Amino acid sequence: GAVVSQHPSWVICKSGTSVKIECRSLDFQATTMFWYRQFPKQSLMLMATSNEGSKATYEQGVEKDKFLINHASLTLSTLTVTSAHPEDSSFYICSAIAGGARSYNEQFFGPGTRLTVL
Amino acid sequence: QKEVEQNSGPLSVPEGAIASLNCTYSDRVSQSFFWYRQYSGKSPELIMSIYSNGDKEDGRFTAQLNKASQYVSLLIRDSQPSDSATYLCAALTGANNLFFGTGTRLTVIP
Questions:
Q1: Cβ contact B95–A93 (<8 Å)
Q2: The dihedral formed by the CA atoms of B70, B108, A109 and B95, expressed in degrees to the nearest 10
Q3: Chain A: nearest CA to B106, how far in angstroms?
Q4: Does residue A40 have a cis bond before it (omega within 30 degrees)?
Q5: Average pLDDT, consecutive stretches of 10 residues, N- to C-terminus, chain B (110 residues)
Q6: Contact across the interface for B92 and A49, Cβ inside 8 Å
């Protein structure tokens, strides 16, 4: 199946700093990637949709200036949490839709990045 | 009404029994539905996708879609302790965004 990786797996940072999370599709080209956030004992909440070469589309209530998304190539999308605060501590998960012959409807998830802001 | 709603459980079944997980959806989602399994601290993994009315079987898993009643279910036959996880129902919107239910926590008791 399609493989999506994330880096780092976990990160601890001080309040006020910025953290960058990478999402890579390893064996396919991802025209569209998604960023989700999951708080403990809650379901995944879609934050934004990232399309290669264009601006990300953010869900209602997600601050685009705080969560910067860049999808500069067909295999890499990055999420930067700027000026992180303790309430940003969460499990961030990316997913990707493969273009071409693969099912357009199926999203393949990365392993997630656990962010803890002190 | 939320796009996708699930009974959050928890659901406990004995080993070898059938586990039944249910999900309802609103008119705001398309006709593509997915069941994901998520172990604690891990990201979701796709178990089944279903697009057409009726049943779809894959090994011990059967997904059922009823468009008239707007529900989708997942049956797990011969449940194993390793099936213990949170099961997430998801549906696509017209914009190809996935909306997830809150998840049902399943525990299979040996």
A1: no
A2: 10
A3: 13
A4: no
A5: 80 96 86 90 91 94 93 96 95 79 94
A6: no
